[in-house]
Amino acid sequence: MCGPESSDTEMDSGILLKLQQVFPDTASYRTEASIIQANAQGYKLELLPTGKRVFYKCIVASDFLETKKDWPDLRRTLIYARTEVRFYSEILPDLQKRGFDAVPRVFLAQCRLDGWIDETEHATQECSKENAAINIKQLLEPETKGGFILLDCVADAHYFQESPLSIEQCKLCLEAVAKLHASAWQDKSLLEKINGSLSRASFHLRMRNPKELAGIVDAWNGFYRAFEKPFEDECNLVWTDALRDMGRRTKAVAEYVSAILSPSPSDRYATLVHGDYKSLNVFLPRDPLTHNALLVDWASCGIGLGMSDVAMHIHHAVLPHLLEEGGEEALVRHYWQQLNTLTNSEYAWDEAWRHYQFGVVDYFRFFLARMWNDATPESLAQKKDNKNVNLINRDLASACAFLVVAEKFMTTIENEMGLQCER
Length: 423
Known about the structure:
There is one protein chain. By secondary structure, this protein is of the alpha+beta class. The protein has 15 helices and 10 strands. It has helices at residues 9-22, 71-97, 129-132, 167-183, 188-197, 210-214, 216-235, 241-244, 246-260, 306-317, 320-323, 327-343, 349-371, 377-382, 396-417, and strands at residues 28-36, 41-48, 53-60, 106-112, 146-152, 159-160, 270-273, 282-285, 294-295, 302-305. The chain has a 5-stranded antiparallel β-sheet, with helices on both faces. A 3-stranded antiparallel β-sheet has the order 6-8-9, covered by helices on one side. The chain has a two-stranded antiparallel ribbon with strand order 7-10. The radius of gyration is 22 Å and the shape is globular. The model is unreliable at 5-11 (pLDDT under 50).
């Protein structure tokens, strides 16, 4: 285990040595809190005797041999680790020179994957059939492979995390991500560096297992069976033929949508996207006049269109009644205005709104294939109080509203593709 609560004294000694690289006076440490996630472990530490508080995030391959089903699955977790380390060590200094500072202070960020993943192997590179067949339990020295990041601890006195968000809180989050997007906006040289070093968004089609898209019609059929009556009875949804056909329609537009959202470094509107812009990846300031919002968890960042972050964020943490009667468009406009002000660009509203619609449909594809493939009303209810879970995966009304919005935007995309006649 990589965590400081492990009984493995050698690993604990290793953590202490890392701490002492930055804080030589550290004699020991105390774990104040821990966060165990699917692809990483994080620990809030108090350093002794100084009382300094830091956040230690670690990914060690040996911790995931029982939970990852195959090499592509384990590789994805390790690539997340490499991406975040590279962001902090290689890309963030460039962003800071361009005025972006909405991150906690980073002290150390290191990754070791030698012998497993070559440094030149891109995150979106598909595994060969030979590598996909690797028995991960036979990999050598898994306890030495992975990465770690040491950050300044975000002070509870000045910051908080929340979900769901109010409109004003969401606007603060959108302002923060607009600053991120502005820092790399259409900067070809920086984006070439990002494209070669980092990854794609966690929900990007090229980052997903091809089996997800192949099975998306079946995933929809199962979702429809489970939610047909609850959406009718509790959300007053009127099922149309177009809604009932969402599985096939999503599969038909997936590649086109992904292509639009996947710019090259020289393309217009290209920028650095966070890639997992959920509400709990933002620390909101208690006093916005004295502190800026801080963004964390950069494991899925890479080149893209900023509206992908906006689409995910809005539907991750804003209750559907706040998005009605123009509320959703008003939030997108707020982001768009902030971005245009920061970049002095001519990002036309019609094009921005088009990109947002593509972002929503793309996120719907990911969510249907990955999160809703075995969802039930009962599974949503079980997660209703978990703030780290997307609202559309823990609240029936949010799920229904997201479906309706995705269908509306999908119709627009189908018209653009000339596919409407197929329904």
